[in-house]
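Please, structure for the following, as tokens.
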Amino acid sequence: MNEELSYFMQLLIGGLSVGSVYALVALGFVLIFKTTKTLNFAQGELMMMGAYFCFTGVMYFKLPFVAAVGAALLFMAALGFVINIVVIKPMIGKPTFSVVMVTIGLATIFGHVVGLVYGHLEIKFPSPFSVNQVVSFAGIYVSTVNLWTIGVSIFFLALFYIFFKYSTIGLGMKATANEQTASMLLGVNINRMFALSWVIAAITATVAGVFLASSSCLHAEMGMIGLRALPAVILGGMDSVAGAIIGGITIGILENLAGGYLDEALGGGLNQITPYIIVIFVMMVRPYGLFGKKHIERV
């Protein structure tokens, strides 16, 4: 394999790894939006807290890494449930803007609490995967953390796809998202579906946070990186689970390719604005996203 093709493939795989993280975070955004019609601006902070809870399990409770990840998933699932019961449920029926401001408040609180407890300096994440560990095949060098990120993300995304497609609870969540009144008449527990959407959003955010921290480090501003999944949500469509996955992977790949090919020629930081440039052009053609549903209101 020639050098140029090898470089392209490395960028492609790196972008797929980043895109997998974006897809997991975007999935949480979409689930909450579909069921509650609320854009959760605390999704990035849920990702950050999941990574910090895993860090705490390994460093302070001396748990094996896999056990620490499992404990973090359980803790974050419980936190998502509590957030829904204590904060979100009392806001049902309130103006959408008020609910959005509540999620922004949650994001701010979580960020400051983590900063107070752990500090604001970058911390090395105790991951068994290292960016410096690489595998080579056909002249392509790929870090093991990228391969694990892609593999585990695909597993979770496939798992949730099967859950929504075939399970009774998953079908109930889809019904709730499409028509809440009709779902209630059919016996679907709406409050349970709301709670479950927050639980799943917290779980997917935790998986994303663990692998994001494994490929870089832990810091109290990780939540801002989570918000970079928003262009993926908008690109795929706010009400499309498949769109969130495809949008996340697309944004990750294009962002990495832009950083690899254009940053040196046009200056650094282009990869960070590339997702927003793409979203602007897509919104001009399809305001509801590539896979979102077009809503028609009669007046």
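The CA atoms of residues 31 and 211 lie 21 Å apart. The chain has one domain: 3-223.
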